[in-house]
Structures
1.
Amino acid sequence: MTDSKKTRQQLLSELRAARDRIRALEQQIQARRAFRSGGGIENHSEAEEGEHSVLHALHRNELLFQSMLDGFILADARGRILEVNPAYCRLIGYSREELFNLNIRDLEAKLDGGEIDRQIQHMLQRGWARFETRHRHKNGSLVDLDVSIVSIQVNEEPMIAAIMHDITEQMAAYRQLSLHNILLKAQCETSQDGILFVDQNQNGLLWNQNFLKLWHISAASADTATKTNLERLLRPQLAENELFLEQFKQLNRDTEKHSQDIVILNDGRFFDAYSRPVLSEEGQFLGRVWYFRDVTEKIMAEKRLRTSEEMFSKIFQASPFPITLTTLERDGGEGRFVRLNEAAEAYIGKPAEEIVGKTWREIGFQYSEALRQEILQILQKEGRIQRKEVEVIHPAGGPRNVLFSSEVLEISGQPYLLSVILDFTEKKQAEQALKDAETKFRSLVEQSLVGIYIISSKRFEYVNPRFSEIFGYSEDELMHSMGVLDIVYEEDRPIVMGNIRKRISGEVHDIHYTFRGVRKDGHVIHLEAHGVQSEYHGRKVIIGALLDITDRKQSEEALRESEARLREAQQIARIGHWEMDVAHRKIRWSEEIARIHDLPEGELELSAEQAMKEFVHPDDVGMVRQHMEDVLSGEGFRPIEFRIRTKNGTEKIISLQGKVIRDEKGKPVRVVGTLQDVTVLKLTELALQEKTQFYEAVIEKAAEGICVFEFDPKSGEIEFNVWNRQMAEITGYDVNEIHGMDWYRKLFPDSLMQEKALRRLRRLWEGDELVNEECEILRKDGDYRTVSISTSLISTYGRQQILAMIHDRTEEKRAQSKLERLNAELEQRVQERTAQLRALNRELEAFSYSVSHDLKSPLRAIDGFSQALLEDYPEQLDETGRKYLNRMRAACVRMGSLIEDLLRLSRITRADLDLQKVDLSHIARQISRDLQRSDPERDVIFEIADGAVAIGDEQLLRIAMENLISNSWKFTRNVEKAKIEFGYRQESGETVFYVKDNGAGFDMRYVHKLFGAFQRLHSPSEFEGSGVGLATVQRIIHRHGGRIWAEGQPEKGAAFYFTIKGEKSEWLKTS
Amino acid sequence: MVEDKLILLVEDNPDDELLTLRAFEKNHLANRIEVVHDGQEALDFLFCEGKYAGRDPDDLPVVVLLDLKLPKLDGIEVLRQIRENERTQWLPVVVLTTSRQEQDIIDSYRLGANSYIAKPVDFKSFIEAVRQLGVYWLLMNELPPRRGES
């Protein structure tokens, strides 16, 4: 027993003795009173002596009572206050006298009467009671009290004695604390994040519902699961568990760092993990708080964005159209090139390096400022421009017509302009030429002074203004409400009818005759008609000219005027007219034709043969001659184009139109017609053709499938105009195999996909710009192909078509999914192996635990009962018996420490390493001091080198050092000048530490046994020990990834060398 | 009175039970010692259930000596239930163990073991544990004398 307890026991017995004396005195006094009342003899001196002694004791009690720190109340059974001590008066603010008029119940501020009665009842049963309550201070404030009451007997009256301990401050602090807890909890639970508060040993101390939800921990298992092993809980959920858990562990020990990381879970979620240390107000490290937020959506969105960017970039580069990205200056200044594709480089004619950073103007393009301003305005208003026709001057190509499409993009807050340029100058020129010709012919007809008509059997299909003027009817009346014969003089109707019939039936091709007509006003007029059979809107018609010869003079004049105009017009259109006299084969032509042939003015007549020889290109002579023969033999005049060589030797292409005029027998008399120089038109056409072929070749050889088609949004039918080789490769179909609705059925066999494709096309048709998507199509051979399709609308000559570019990604996809599958399988196998290893380790752990526990239990009993025998039956045992029992107990102690050593050894293998900088010199010095203190008798010289520092687990390294140095201490016991040395040296790049002594040493033949558990090289009688020490050291060094070896010589000493790598060795790590 | 102050010993190993009782006896601590042999029995005793249904619920032990390795319910579970029950949540519990396994110590302290002593019960460390618990006053001091004794 300790000294303090002895003192207390002594005090107690003293108190008991004192009380016994008081009781004895009381009994004496009572006895005396009884004697007195009974009229017995008085014995003053004895009584006085007793009273004096009682008073003395009372006085001592009174002093105690007055100086008590806790309040004291003495009350009767009804609670009336009979006595209080000054401490209670101080507590409650009333004076002692005031309290005498009060009942305990008056002061009570917490318990009701019933509860007080219950406590008193309790007290009366057990003799005491203890409870917490509050009393009201005189000033109205409340005082928290810890009350102990006991019942005592005063003069045979039952009384209550109460000791009141003031606990107001504790209670206030407690209430404050629980308020803080409630607030903290509420705050935690309202947070969107999963919150976890964890101490430095990875134990969860506090967490909110969101944390459990995020980590899929059921509320029921939250307590045990989260508290006991967070790591076991988190690890299986993490995709890169080692990485995060390492960090998690390290951070939880870190008292300063704030961390923010993305955690990847193996179910594909991503958490944003933020943590910071929590310090108490005094700066003591309490643990770390972690906030987890599910950011899967955000990260996936970013990923999708990246993919679409990549696709865009591919299209950008692969597009056959020039595409440019320029800055959009906020001040309206010229935008500068940022990027452009290869097509744009080719179009501009310079490499990108010379373009980027410059403006259109700076690289030589010219355009009006007004146009630029207009474009800027449209962009400002609508954000985009679609196929705006603009004119620019190309630095190399002169004026160009360009379709300019542009869209404003925002990239990192900066506005940019993405523009597509479509140069259609060639097409435009051809178009313009056609338009011009058409306009000219139309005006020719419209303004003709000859009445021109088109009739089909009996109706007018067309009449020109002159025609209606001749007859005085309006064009409308003639075309819509009158028959052909209505304007023919009655007598001549059969002739006209016959002539019309002949031409419609094809009997004669053209005819020239006169007849009489009737004007609206009834006047009969003489008319000359020239009619040619032709086709109009798929019907046979007669196109003809009508001349009013009634007023020939007038008409002739009008004709001359008209001819002059015609000439003028012909000159502009480079059209001349000619006439051939069939009989003489003589040709007369107009001045314009002479000009076309570079002939001097006035040379207007020549023979057909002459013309053939002099002007027609030798290669074309045969064709032209044949044509002439055909015409003269009555075949009618088909327009013909051939090459000529002019007088100057210039080669030109001309187009010849004409008609044959016959006599009444139908024999050709004259051939009249026009000649037009179509060289420019033809050359343009050829150039266009060449360009078209070029583009077709490019499209045909493109690595992507390209098709262009017309689409009928109502029926869904498609007519392909372009279907390149790669397209046929991808789909397996030739373009001839796909038309109408075939695409719909053949390429998309599943009705869902069919509908989707159709819907997409319709949306695109209505103007949705560019649709990019990946889908599956069915190839002709039944194989499914994954393709990415990008489509866009293209518009040419007002004809809208769809351009689709298709990239076959099947192989890419297949390779990718194969890789993913392989990875998953590998992962699976690794996990299975890991799980097996873990299970094995757990079994071993459980085994060693239970073995040690079970072994120790009987050992304890043997030891305990041996001791019991020694203590309880010393007389029944002789010296030998006692010696045996002592031997048993010593054996028990040895076996106990053996088991402990084994347990420690297995723990070293299991425990996690806490790596840090460890000063081994310092540790060696501490160990040497402890050893010297444990046995001051021994004189051992320690030589410890300074600055031996290693990265490792301090606790484990200390155990290793203790074992090594204690070993040396032990084995130098019999040496006179014992010396133990700790040091280190550098050897091939690593630090080798060593512990050397000059003790008993060992035979190198047995060096291999040194580090095995329970392997001993000395008998226990020489040197005690379990043989586990060096095995433990070896495990510690191996766990640090280091090596250990020994050198020794019997009676000369031993040396142990080791290295420390400062990192965990994987093969020894078990958890 | 001292002999009224109940101590509950939860121990399944009869050797350890006998040695523990002997240690108490040797040290003249004449408390009432109730011994139960498994975790379920310990809970039944404390919560007056099962075969202890008739027990006075107010007659709580001043301290429970709890072995961790027990049949049926183990000591950790018993401790957890003691701490969960409002009536026994402040009951002083001293964990007895043969093992120095860290996890046991961590678990029992986290669940609210008041102290920890190794077997066989070393009386000195028991007294030290009890002193730390603050039941010292109840164990060591006599209460004011009852009626009839004065």
Note: The first helix of chain B runs from residue 14 to 26.
2.
Amino acid sequence: MININIHKTLQGARGEMNLDINLSIKEHEFVTLSGKSGSGKTTLLRVLAGLEDAKGEIKVANKIWLDKKNSLAVQKRDIGFVFQDYALFPNMSVEENLLYVNKDKTLAKQLLELTQLTAMAKRLPNKLSGGQKQRVSLCRAFMARPKLLLMDEPLSALDVDMRLKLQHDILALHKKFGTTTIMVSHDPSEIYKLSNRVVILENGKITQDGTPKNILLKTQGSQKFSLIGELLEIIQADIIFIAVVAIGQQIVEVVLDEKEASNFHTGDKVQVSTKAFAPMLSLAH
Amino acid sequence: MNQLDLEPFLLSFKLASVVTIILFIIAIPVSWWLSRTTCRCKPFVEAVVSLPIVLPPSVLGFYILYALSYNSPIGAFFEETFGIKLVFNFTGLVIASCFYSFPFMVQPLQGGFESLNKNMLEASYIAGKSKLKTLWHVALPNIKPALLTALIITFAHTVGEFGVVLMVGGSIPNETKVASVAIYEMVEIMDYKMAHIYSAIMLGISFTVLFSVYLFNQRHAKRIGV
């Protein structure tokens, strides 16, 4: 069980912000932190790691990491951390990067096999692709056999194919080592696949907390599907209007009548949903 | 005509070697601290460290001469307690050169440390390694070009100094008469031939040293793919 109750004042891009987090996480849980940039997700991870200080308490499996008097040093927290930019040691080979954490050669070999990196063991990080680097970073994080694994947008710098492969590796390692994992991510499919709990942060506060299905599924009432997109343009074609909407990587068209068209403006965040056959467009919240 | 006397060169290189080793040991903690600190006193420390770059060598030399001489408490203390004279001998030259060349060691190292990926250093702390271990195993090996630049520039700069050495050391053969001072004296007595030979040797050595540093840095950059 991990109990977090922390408070910290941050100097953000939009002035001062208070990070107030009260969160309990069960052992072996996979929690994703999501929310707009600047909402305090990364700071929360860094406070948990001991890289930044904060007021309050952090208790991990009856061990106190932070209270009024003490803050356990980052070196003593037994965590794994995966950075978005990999943060590998460029002067060490893949194998040395792992053994630097812990001299356990058997574990290093096993991790490299699991992530199909055995052939790369003697290479320096700059001879690896982005996906390979992040797999090394993942292996390195597990070398400490961490009770708590923290990942800060680990896959956001990678392309789609590589992400799928890494998602599989992350899940496999999380289960094999029985770690408790906290990940920052914005990718709904990734969150859905990996985590069993999603916590949404807004301006330093938790606004939603639940299962990925409850939080990510946007349909309400009789809606069959519902997608959030950005309105790019409204084109008039004779008496009807066509709204061009970007949803993820795709562009779709939705037909509107004149009255509907006058409600929308280019750049609006919109929700595309359907009840029966024709998709409908409405302003998204 | 004089015989080609290599003693001033040997003395210059001996001085430069000793100074480089001493400064390397002192500059690593100072530059590491400067690269990491958020202390409000940082600009002050940086200004003090960089002073020898802008100060006329005669000014620096004068202060050091005064501080080390028997007239000052420091000089008097060393002479009375340990029986060591600190001016007009090799020891005095080493102390003066350490002040004079300090920024040339600190600045490249500080720049190197500042260019390191902060996350990479944090990854080392998370791996349970102390700051000292991180410095030794992660930070230093990843600033090799800066390290080499700092060592070589400090060495070359010490070989090339003149004003401070003359002020603090004078020109005692085999003790404080380094190559630059020897050349000055040759010009004074109008022995232009020897001055030419000595100067050419200095020019050749200096160029070779700098060329090697920049060549290494170029190759290193290619190898690690910067």
Note: The radius of gyration of chain B is 20 Å.
